[in-house]
Amino acid sequence: MRALHLVPAAVVLLALGAIGAVASLDHPTASPNPAAVTRQAAVTAAARACPATLGGGTGTVALIAGPAASGGSSGSGGPGQAELASLPPAGGQLQPAGAISAKSPGALELLDVPAASSPTSKTKGTKTTPEPTGWSVTASGTMAQAMEAEVAQSSGLASLRCGEPGSDIWFVGPGQASGAAQIQLELMNIDSLTATVDVSMITDAGPVQAGNDTGITVPPYQTVTESLSSAAGNSSVVAIEVHTSSGRVAADVSEGGSAHGRTTNWLPSAAEPSTQLVIPGVPPSSHAAELFLTVPGTADAKVNVLAITPQGQYRPFGSQPVDLPGQSASSMTLTPLGGTAAAVAITANVPVTATVLVPGTGVGAFTTATAPISEQAVVAGNISGSGFAASVVLSAPAGAARVRLTEISASTGSAASRVISVLAGHTLMVPVAPPSGAKRGAAFAVVIAPLAGSGPLYAARVETQDQSTVVSIIPAASALTTISLPPVRDSYDAINP
Question: What predicted TM-score, i.e. pTM, was given to this entire model?
Answer without folding.
Answer: 0.86
